[in-house]
Write a structure and sequence with these properties.
The chain is mainly α. It has one domain (17-147). Helices cover 55% and strands 8% of the residues. The chain is built from five helices and three strands, in the order H-E-H-H-H-E-E-H. Strands 1-3-2 form a three-stranded antiparallel beta sheet. Strand 2 and strand 3 (111-115) form a beta hairpin. The longest helix has 29 residues, at 51-79. The chain is elongated and about 45 Å long. 27% of the residues are buried. This is Lysozyme inhibitor LprI-like N-terminal domain-containing protein. Residues 50-130 form the Lysozyme inhibitor LprI-like N-terminal domain.
Length: 149
């Protein structure tokens, strides 16, 4: 992806303008690394001009959310006792499978599609959930029973 775009680095929030219901339906077609056009790279994520710009902006949010997910997952995993680590790994794999199932599809004409709005929403929710578990570990002690989600 191009580094030209200057989208906000503000914390992720499902109430952000990129999470409008109509944006949720925008699909990112997985056709290769060159998917995003240079025109999209020059757009403004605050007011995307068209569907390609919306997909571009959502994909940037998804990449950021995925980075945050990986970071908090790693921090939490290090804090948990061994048995809880096994549980977290299992629930994370289950969550990934559910996200991938709910946020992807197959179109007979277009092939594989990723519903980026769905993937962003689910990933942000998971980041928030894991951050809450990490905060618990750091403040009042880890509570492995809360990992069963």
């Amino acid at each position: 992806m191009s580094k030209k775009m200057q989208c906000s680095d503000a914390p992720l929030s499902p109430s952000a303008s990129l999470f409008r219901p109509e944006t949720w339906r925008v699909a990112l077609l997985v056709v290769g690394a060159g998917l995003l056009s240079s025109a999209g790279a020059q757009s403004n994520c605050d007011t995307p001009g068209n569907t390609f710009d919306e997909v571009y902006c959502l994909s940037k949010v998804l990449v950021k959310a995925d980075d945050e997910l990986n970071a908090v997952y790693g921090k939490l995993l290090k804090r948990l006792p061994a048995a809880a680590q096994v549980n977290l790994r299992q629930t994370q794999r289950s969550w990934l499978a559910r996200r991938d199932s709910e946020c992807t599809g197959r179109d007979s004409r277009l092939g594989e599609v990723i519903y980026t709005g769905c993937a962003v929403d689910m990933t942000v929710q998971r980041v928030n959930f894991l951050n809450a578990r990490y905060r618990e570990c750091m403040s009042s002690g880890c509570q492995p029973s809360k990992l069963r989600r």
